[in-house]
Design brief:
11 helices, Tetracycline Repressor, domain 2, mainly alpha, single chain, 183 residues, 0% strand
Length: 183
């Protein structure tokens, strides 16, 4: 998984080869196919593996919050505290939307099993609906906006670097809290 993540992060889905991944992992290409039917299956597994590494911090961040708004702000704030290894995962994951657009086989797999971040967002929104913080009619919109926000924040950080990303993430947190456009 680590070899595949490195290859996909460095070369993208199309540029990474099974031979390169297998060599870096010290296995044969044939051995890889015993675990993954296709390169797209391997890519999806690497996405879920990268997300799994980030999940404990995300879950801890939201466990302390009493409102949905505060939980979403906490999720975004966690992005600022990632160490170098976690930043590598975020860099890899930030390419996912583009790879999904270019490669329908990846999009198909990711949409079939969107992963834990999507599940957390849905759980938070459902909690917000039950608590009266989010109108039921806007629940799906909130899910979509928050997923788009996380995708955009990670792509922004990957493209422009951590210093500018800090300002963007701080601004998003203020936006969620209703503080961005106040004097």
């Amino acid at each position: 998984m680590a070899a595949a993540r490195q290859a996909f992060a460095q070369h993208g889905f199309e540029g990474a080869t099974n031979a390169e991944i297998a060599a870096a992992a010290n296995v044969t290409s044939a051995a890889m196919y015993r675990h993954f039917e296709s390169k797209a299956d391997l890519y999806a597994a690497v996405v879920h593996d990268a997300l799994a590494e980030l999940m404990p911090r995300l879950r801890r961040a939201i466990s302390k919050e009493e409102t949905v708004r505060a939980a979403f702000a906490a999720l975004l704030s966690v992005l600022q505290g990632f160490d170098a290894e976690q930043h590598a995962s975020v860099r890899f994951l930030s390419a996912l939307p583009s790879e999904m657009q270019r490669h329908p086989e990846i999009a198909k797999r990711m949409l079939a099993d969107p992963g834990e971040v999507f599940a957390i967002v849905q759980q938070l929104v459902e909690s917000g609906v039950r608590a009266g913080e989010i109108p039921r009619a806007k629940a799906q919109r909130v899910v979509s906006v928050m997923i788009a926000t996380f995708m955009g924040a990670s792509a922004y950080a990957n493209t422009l670097g951590p210093r500018l990303a800090e300002h963007a993430i701080a601004g998003l947190v203020e936006l969620i809290r209703g503080e961005l456009f106040t004097l």
